[in-house]
Amino acid sequence: MLHSSYIEIRKSALQNNIDFIRREIGTEVTFSSVVKGNAYGHGIEQFAPLAQECGVSHFSVFSADEAERLLQSLKQPATIMIMGYLDNPELEWAIRNEIEFFVFELDRLLEASAIARKLGKKAKIHLELETGMNRTGFNKAALEQAQAILEDCKAELTLQGICTHFAGAESMQNHDRVQKQLHAYEQQVQHLRSAGHTPEQLHTACSAAMISYPETRMDMVRVGIMQYGFWPSPETYSQYVSNQPSRKDPLRRLINWKSRIMSLKSVPQGEYIGYGTSFQSPRDMVLAIVPVGYAWGYSRTLSNQGQVLIKGTRAAVVGTVNMNVMMVDVTHIPDVQKDEEVVLLGIQGNESITVASFAELSIQLNYELLTRLPLNIPRYIID
Question: Could you say which of 36, 122, 124, 258 is catalytic?
Answer without folding.
Answer: 36
